[in-house]
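Help wanted!
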Amino acid sequence: MGAWQSYRLRVNRQTWRARATIKKRELSEVCNLTKVIKPNDILLFSTIRNEEIRLPFFLKYYRNLGVNHFILVDNHSSDGSLALLKGQPDVSIWQTEHSYKTSHFGVDWLNCLQSRYGHGHWTLVVDPDEFFIYPFCDNRPLRALTDWLDANETRSFGAMLLDMYPKGPILDQTYHAGQDPLEIAGWFDPGNYTIEPNTRFRNLWIQGGPRARMFFAKTPRRAPALNKIPLVKWHRAYTYISSTHMLLPRGLNVVYDTTGGERLSGLLLHTKFLNTFHIKVLEEVSRQTHYAKSLEYQTYAHALRHNPDLWCEWSEKFTGWQQLETLGLMSKGRWL
Amino acid sequence: MRLGAIGVVVLVHQDLSRSAQAIRHWSQAGCAVVVHVDRAVTSSAHERFLRDLSDLPKVKFCARQRCEWGTWGLVAASQFACEMMLANFADPQHIYLASGSCLPIRPVQDLISYLEANSATNFIESTTVSDVPWSIGGLHKERFQLRFPFAWKSQRWLFDLSVRLQRALGLKRRLPQGITPHLGSQWWCLTRSTVSAILNDPKRPIYERYFRRVWIPDESYFQTLVRHHSTQIESRSLTLAKFDVQGKPHVFYDDHLEILGQSGCFVARKLWAGADKLYTAFPMASDTTRDSTHRSSDALNHLFAESAARGSKGRVGLYMQSRFPHQDPHAPLTAAKYTVLEGFFDLFHDFQAWLSQTTDNKQAQIHGHLFAHEAAVFAGQKTTIRGSLSNSATLRDNNPTAFLTNLIWNTRGQHQCFQFGPHDVQKIGKILPQDSNAQIFIITGAWLVPLSQSVESLAEIHAKALRLHAAESKHLALLRAPWVKAKVHIWPLSQIIANPKLQLHEILKAIEPNAKCPTTVPEINLDPIAFPAFVRALENQGMHRGLAGNLNTVKRIIAGPEIP
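Answered by r_m:
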């Protein structure tokens, strides 16, 4: 790496960190229980907005996995999300009414909270519709994974976004609070992902899945990025840039092997495509807050008029981590 | 049977409550225990640890050393503890070196009985340097030839610098007289007399001075000196402790319960501190695998081998978030062999149907032109195939290599065969020759056949022919390049026409190795008189000569399935 490029990346990283510091002013504390966090605790960070219906299962899932504390930013929810979260013994909440878009879709807010509370901890950054899985997750808690990563001097862990969807039109089945969303959105595309290396930030750019197949077949380069690095042993000098797709310093983005071997990796089961998706899309389009002037969301809005069915003959029904490992969507790597 | 026949030295670094649990097991079985606690452990944790074990009578604690990985501290700690063992306990005839994250698997009594039956044997893995297949940091013999004053983990750059410097200056240490370097697992079980001989050797200070600057002396100090003091050695460790391809110790979890129970090993390491089920189940109260037919370490060895394969070679032909190899000149691009046919659709009537009928549908999938401009033509005209791979041309052309590698990965177990030609999107033409899994069969000039039946004017046909010929020439140049790794068969049109059966048999063999010579061949789409005339007419328009081979030598054209 040339000294000039190295310098530019450093400036880039410091700009992101400075922005996070400035954005701190936008956050107001609602419920700060971070004093109960112990030195080795695993922390989960997330930005939420009107997720009352998803939160009960979300909290249950991650508590069960071994997350010790939740640090959430509520972006002006108008439903009962806040009431539901207040009074939980392991949830700290900050609130903001500022724009999700100008805070880089929550990245600035979370960077700020992570540098303050995440330093030295394993931190998991996920959305309320993303469910983290990894090899052996049915038997080994998250702590077993982070202990192994520590022993192997690995600071970051990759987990590609795997879009899950129901069989039949998206809007036909109703999701109830507390229900496992995979009971409805239990299907996925097993083998149509494309990968391109990003030389600047050293990450892999992964696209594909049902969204590319159904919504972006004519404009494949606009299809959403699926590469994610949600689990990081946080240091206050680190910063996410562009959601959890990339980090700086860029060495953290190298979660793959280039010599032929496989590194240990997981997946984020993305249960966006429930009947609740419709309401989200309408909201996002009207707020114009998402990437590329909501082009992605306009595409969804257009498609949703026909209540699309993402399921195809070759969709696979999710049965467990072993299946995803065999298919080659994630890997056990050297983990015994 | 006399109890307390073994003394256990336990080196404790972390997870003190689990270490205490293991020590309790040793002690309750009647073993004398000497514990060494790493000086890096905080004093409050250490005090709690001492309190936890204060009720055990035959447990002693020795002076604390800092034990950094790969440094002398670990050997020094073992020496202190062994000296204490010899001085304080007269019974033990064997001394077993264990760590805090070791746990007895079979009943400790089994181990004691086993050692009583082999009372004079030293169990220590000890092999000469040239027999050891593993090395860390690219160092092998140099472990014994260079000096290593810096720690590998915490002072890596100083470590590397000093190694480079010594190599550059050609510095080599001289070995103390009379010893041959041996290496092996850190965890051993030696007889009292051997340990005593090593510790009381008058030349100990000389050896120590040497081994202090050897790299990872805990894997070589006792392993080397035991050869000096004893001849009764079984070169294996009684502790199951495996390392992965990166040199990190494998860790066992609750889901390994059954496999560990059946492994027949006395002691295992490392156990994850959170593995409650393992710590509850082991050591077994009675050996359920006493009947040795139930005892098998095959399952464990299979696990180790699988982990090594995943970590070093991975699954060839798979591209995913944590495996993205740079083009390796030795490894194929794709997961399995596949067949590319060029020109056969043009020459033969309904070739796809014929090939599908001739081959086993379970074994092989026969596609049309996968890289056609409009859309990929999958077998059976499907819009998606296995893997939910779409036939969309834009998705495919966005990354044709990924389309190909995905297709072959998704359908592994079923041979893929597809058509390609100068009409198709040509980008993949650069990739195919580089893949050693590709078997390419090409009939040059076959694109002339549909043109010969065209009703367009000769000038229009000529223009088309020029374009197709250019595409074909470019493609052929790639297929004939010296770096080509694909298996390429180039046949001129005339050769195929002369004897299609022979060439079609070649193709069938590529798809199914045991394929028999076909009894029927598909009909050829070609007028034996008009076609040579058409080619001549094109040549007279200025086209390159010999596009379809030498048509004049074609004595007769086999034009139907019934002619043998």
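OP: Thanks! One thing I noticed: Chain A touches chain B through 57 residues (CB under 8 Å).
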